[in-house]
Inverse folding.
């Protein structure tokens, strides 16, 4: 795949106008995504938020797959806070629904740079609160709620968990972070080892953070950069999945280590040979389904414990 990308000699997403980049990002997300996995029902809704209505897509598992009692997972997509959305992550959410037996609610949060921090987080947190408050309508239990995200969505999932702890609601049973972007410093060894040549690179991450954060003050805010949180106690059990050839690898693993040190039950798994974004490429990488199963197992265990 890397050879094909290198041979294409196309401009990077952050080197073209935003709308063109979003179109290219959506097209790339379709490569290797595979066929949609059957679920019982898919329902597009609008939920209220502080910046206006937020589109969400609700996936209900087939009866044969469903947990009892049934939990819910708020899923926050990746894309550098700039790209992607419900459509690009449809196959991931279908796979997660079938594997976990949970109702999955995918959130189409507003994107930077038009809507920088804290707007994407506000939308994500509002959606999590809505899922908890409308559990009966969704056929789920209000205390069996988890949050999950990949890349920028992993950042938002970690930040939702921090905000939920700090605000006292909603109650979260688990957080699953897949190659999360947690620290704008970009100074870990994995940035040196993997900062070029592996799809996501250091200049790209610098650009993504610049679109999301408006100031140095934001860069120090733990709800924008969860790695900056001084206290991780009291957060929900965590599963952190990283990729070997990813500049974000070390910050994810460092966050997992800090969660463990803070007394948060945490599992950290590095996927050998993988690069950033592999979760959405099951047609190319069998490890994508392995990672979904790791996440699904963690969700089933956390929700079973909470129930």
């Amino acid at each position: 795949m890397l050879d094909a990308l290198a041979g294409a000699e196309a401009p990077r997403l952050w080197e073209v106008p935003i709308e063109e980049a979003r179109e290219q990002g959506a097209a790339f997300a379709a490569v290797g995504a595979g066929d949609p996995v059957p679920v019982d029902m898919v329902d597009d809704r609008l939920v209220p938020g502080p910046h206006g209505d937020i589109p969400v897509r609700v996936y209900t598992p087939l009866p044969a797959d469903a947990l009892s009692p049934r939990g819910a997972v708020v899923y926050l997509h990746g894309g550098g806070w700039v790209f992607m959305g419900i459509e690009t992550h449809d196959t991931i959410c279908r796979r997660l629904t079938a594997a976990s037996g949970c109702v999955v609610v995918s959130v189409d949060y507003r994107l930077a740079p038009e809507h920088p921090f804290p707007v994407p987080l506000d939308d994500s947190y509002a959606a999590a609160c809505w899922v908890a408050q409308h559990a009966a309508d969704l056929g789920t239990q209000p205390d069996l709620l988890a949050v999950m995200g990949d890349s920028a969505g992993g950042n938002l999932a970690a930040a939702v968990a921090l905000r939920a702890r700090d605000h006292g609601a909603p109650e979260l049973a688990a957080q699953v972070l897949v190659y999360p972007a947690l620290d704008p410093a970009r100074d870990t060894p994995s940035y040196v080892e993997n900062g070029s040549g592996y799809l996501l690179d250091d200049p790209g991450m610098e650009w993504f953070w610049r679109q999301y954060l408006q100031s140095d003050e934001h860069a120090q805010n733990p709800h924008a950069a969860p790695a900056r949180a001084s206290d991780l106690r009291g957060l929900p059990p965590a599963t952190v999945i990283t990729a070997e050839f990813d500049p974000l690898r070390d910050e994810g693993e460092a966050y997992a280590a800090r969660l463990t040190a803070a007394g948060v039950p945490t599992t950290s798994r590095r996927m050998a040979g993988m690069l950033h974004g592999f979760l959405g490429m099951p047609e190319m990488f069998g490890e994508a389904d392995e990672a979904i199963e790791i996440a699904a197992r963690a969700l089933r265990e956390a929700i079973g414990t909470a129930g």
In short: The mean pLDDT is 94. The longest helix spans residues 287-306. The chain is about 40% helix and 15% strand. The radius of gyration is 18 Å.
